[in-house]
Amino acid sequence: MKISDLTELALRNLRESVLRNSLTTVGISVGVASLVAMLSLGTGLQQLLSQRLAKSGLFDTVFVSSRRDLRGGMGREEERKGPTPGESRVLDEPARQEMERLPNVSEAYPDIRFATELRYEDKPHLTMISALPLSAKSNDAFDGMQGNFFSSDTGAEVILQKSFAEELLGKTPPLGAAEPNVAELAKPLLGKELTMRYAQRQAAPSTQPSLREKDTSVADDGVESAAYSVVSREQKLRIVGVSDLDPETMRGPTRAKVFLPLGLAESLHIMQPTDLREISRAATDQPVYSSVSVRVNNPAQV
Amino acid sequence: MKTAPAVASARGTLAVRIENLCRHYRMGETVIRAVDGVSVEIRAGEFVALLGSSGSGKSSVLNLIAGLDRPTSGSVVVQDRDLAKLSREDLAKYRLHVVGMVFQSFNLIASMTLAENVELPLRFAEVDRSQRGNLAREALEHVGLRARMNHRPSELSGGEQQRAALARALINRPQLLLADEPTGNLDSHTGTEIMNMVREFNHELGMTVVMVTHERALAERYAQRMIFLADGKLIDDRTNSDRINNDRANAAAAADPREPGGRP
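Structure tokens for the assembled complex are given below, as produced in the milestone run.
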């Protein structure tokens, strides 16, 4: 049959029962649209979850801690083998650099985390602070952030998590109540200054002969004396961002609500729990890390 | 420009050859032998009636000859072509050009007028649009429905619908007219009208007619040959001497100028 005849007959049949054909068309359209919507929703959710999980560091980051850290041992077979904690290697800057040079490793950065006091409008707030590398900008917790990410690795800047912003403004909602909008919270805070009080570790002049002679406990057994001071310091920090989501969801109770640039945190020589354990190292300028986050290029290579 | 082919078979040559034809249907574990080893030859120009009770396999044989169904085994050879071996496209062409079919329930398209219904095979045959109208009009005139050509099937009586179906079956000038209980839905008077028309086509155009019926009287009156089927098997094949004698007498009368109505 000719195309013209086919078309003519098809149109004629469509005209023959307009209502039925219209209803059929609407039915098919609704059916197909529903199917497409459901598939799109499924695919979208899958992509969102994959993206979130990929950015969370759950699959591409290994947290490395030293065997010398006696907290939280899991008693696994691997931990029973090898050197004793005392003989184990210290997790310091050379160790971090060594990890960073491993194949497929994109970066290895120390976990600097401490609880301290922040003052805002002369009111003290105690909170957990964590240092973030610039690469954390890709973390999806900062996707919908109000303000900006750190301008540099050493800038005196700070990003607040929404719940801490609520605390600063005295707007912490009661349990079950609707949470305030992050944009509303950020508006009065962005660009404002916070004062961070922290404990700085300072190497003491332990090499002074007069001091060595007076220290009878260590002078005779050949062990080098080590000492450092802990000095209370203040650092002004400018609020550059307020994030709605929590970038440290996986951290549990030790998760921070305030974030500093990693370079700044390192330069401040903030007293860390490991400094109490590694006294001889803490007395120098060389930091010792409690843990190092090692990020790989491909999760399959972890 | 394509035109409808004319009926070309010479009387007496072999029109249809059926050899050991079987059509079995499987219903779960059971095999139903609708047609079971039927062999028959039909000559061009013959008027053959397939008789038998319900379920004897008459319509199945007719469908196999029409190329509407394929045999389980055996062969149906029409114009030296084994239908079982034809491709779907070739079978469609065979149905379009070689076969005309009339059904008990007319099978006219309700949304089309009679002219459009009759014109439909011409559309499939890709006959030029300008010719189609004339051919359809002529065909309807031939069956006495010229005045009803713009009516829809629902506006016609059963006899008129069957006449329109006949016009549609014959519009492409097929060599084989297959009729499946053509008078089944009609009263006896209208049935006679239709059968006279079929006999006329058989006579005038030399068209081979195969008609399925369970009315023996109808077959005896019109068919030259009667084939009896039972349980899918051919049980009898006999010529209808009364009809043949009548035909001869009519032919002689028509040739004699002294007879009323005879050719001068």
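The two ends of chain A are 64 Å apart (CA to CA). The CA atoms of residues 98 and 247 of chain A lie 27 Å apart. Further analysis is deferred to the final report.
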